[in-house]
Design a protein that fits this description.
It is a multi-pass membrane protein. By secondary structure, the chain is mainly α. It is built from 15 helices and no strands.
Length: 310
């Protein structure tokens, strides 16, 4: 178990190293492009040269990379071109907002999806199975921007039950989270439910489940003790991947509801060519991605002992 975790941590660090090199080469290698983005297209050549020299851009590439990587490790991401403040002053607040949104979404989506997937997989081919499958297919077929418009038309303009934006101008308001969470849950739970249903159906047809039924064990005990643990191995992968999607893939939802989160920040940075903010957002997203995979591997070892002792 310890050896498995050590290998995964080494792979995680290697992945981050490779991504950091690619990111540095893509955004920092052309120093003239960096100077233009920071100082603006109307800056003079002399101003750019003075800025590049003052910020160490005339140093050798390897020295610049290690300085750049060291600043990232220490939490120094530079100054945002768009907001004119240190990137860390914006990044962590926006990341926290997205974590709140992701936590609310996960708290509803995962239990709902697993429950519906289990109910569907336990009675494959039944009316309940067909109905749940139809709901999952319909919800996952509607993109976020379409469901955001539809739900806003119903709950904001027609019924007038919910606010149309989630900007939180007067402080945290859980009511403003309802619409974004509804959109994200509606789009994401179908994938997890369908995967759980397929895995549960496969487990229910296994020989050891049939043997347990023939022995007369209580049905709820068969489901909870024998079937559910094995059925959750495959959906666990999808659940962990949803974290990456909720972190950087919620740009449409955050922008639609004016929610000040990580996804909206990444969009603003891209539109403004804010190179330092883009670099910081990319590295944070990579850190979260590799960390969730590490958690997924540890979870596999508990769900499947064969992985733990192999």
């Amino acid at each position: 178990m310890i050896v498995l975790i050590a290998k995964r941590i080494a792979l995680m660090l290697l992945t981050m190293l490779v991504v950091s090199i690619i990111l540095f080469l893509a955004l920092e290698l052309n120093i003239d492009s960096v100077a233009i983005k920071v100082l603006g297209p109307y800056s003079s050549e002399e101003q750019r040269q003075l800025w590049l020299e003052a910020n160490g851009y005339y140093a050798p590439v390897m020295e610049r990379y290690f300085t750049w990587a060291g600043n990232f490790i220490s939490g120094d991401f530079g100054e945002s071109i768009r907001f004119r403040v240190p990137v860390s002053d914006i990044l962590w607040d926006r990341l926290g907002n997205t974590l709140i949104l992701a936590g609310a979404t996960f708290g509803i989506m995962v239990p709902l999806a697993i429950l519906m997937g289990i109910l569907s997989g336990m009675k494959e081919g039944s009316l309940a199975d067909r109905l749940i499958s139809l709901i999952c297919i319909i919800t996952t077929s509607i993109p976020e921007f379409a469901s955001a418009v539809f739900l806003s038309a119903v709950f904001v303009f027609s019924l007038q039950w919910l606010p149309g934006t989630s900007s939180m101008l007067n402080g945290f308001d859980p009511v403003q989270l309802v619409l974004p969470v509804m959109v994200l849950v509606g789009y994401g739970f179908g994938y997890v439910a369908r995967m759980t249903r397929a895995s549960m159906a496969e487990v229910m047809s296994a020989h050891y489940i049939r043997t347990a039924v023939l022995k007369g064990l209580p049905y709820h005990r068969i489901i909870m003790k024998h079937a559910l643990r094995n059925a959750l191995i495959a959906p666990f992968t999808i659940i962990m991947l949803q974290i990456n999607w909720l972190l950087s893939g919620v740009i449409v939802v955050e922008y639609a509801f004016a929610y000040k989160g990580f996804g909206a920040l990444l969009l603003e940075a891209s539109l403004a060519s804010d190179v330092y903010l883009i670099e910081a957002c990319t590295m944070v997203a990579v850190c979260v991605a590799v960390l969730t995979q590490l958690i997924a591997d540890i979870g596999y070892s508990y769900l499947n002992p064969r992985i733990r002792f192999s």
